[in-house]
Amino acid sequence: MSELNQIANKIISNGKGILAADESNGTMTKRLTAVNVESTPENRLKFREILFSSESMKEHIGGVILYDETINQTTSFENSIPDLIASSGALPGIKVDTGAKNLANSKVEKITEGLDGLRERLKKYYELGARFTKWRAVYSINDKYPSNLAIHTNAHALARYAALAQENKMVPIVEPEVLMDGDHSADECLNKTSEVIQRCFEELILHKVDLSGIILKPNMILDGNKSKIKISNEEVAQKTLECLKKSVPSEVPGIAFLSGGQSEIEATENLDLINKHNNTKFIMTYSYGRALQQSALKEWSKNTKDKVLTQNTFNHRAKMCSLATKGKWSKELENK
Asked: From CA 46, how far away is CA 25, in angstroms rounded?
């Protein structure tokens, strides 16, 4: 078992998942503004510190993805954010892409940038305590998209990133997200997501990436958010498993789903059903942002000095997600 494989398994094993707290300052500003909290470095730190020091970090969170601002911040306890996360037994990680920009000659499709200077940035992040990394590629669906160009260029960038991360002793999270925006069917999502993931692995293998030392972060198979036909949660689970079984090489230790526009309950229930039907050797867990934080953020906004209520809300959400990784979640437990 390689060191990278050990790190990957530490993050996602034993009912643990990943807290995606890597929102850019722009995204975090939108979320704070929506709950009437001023977005300052101090407030962004205060909210995240409350989550990172909660009890559920020890039992349910194996890793936390950070943003550049956050990984460089010092807590109110006078230690670094990576040290605070590590003190709970979780591993600090870091988002290293610089965002999705318009693909050349396209007004619709995106290419994720950030490869320039990445090797040097990775060295700095490793010294700060990061042991895994994240890079997100996004793909639109309609009758024309995603194009072969978007699929190929994003897969190539993900593979180059992953190879550099492993070169610097960090586990890369590979995140090809087929967006749920649109009126496409779940079957279209299944076909396009399968094609996207397969191309990613072709490039990862070409770039000599150790597949046992990565974590895949895909979307679940869902109807478009404007689709008139909605499949059941059971069908979401079955189609998601179908996609992964035919697209992901067996060496990959685990899959940490993004929540991708789903509500907290939807993301939890779908993960639970995936695990109830999981007949693969893959660990199926979560790498959720809003689906772990949204309720806690709403509680915190009511009284930013009430740390306990915010942590209790976060602890409940993390526990529910953890139960879902074992196929043991239920609506009764959710509402207790």
From this structure: 14
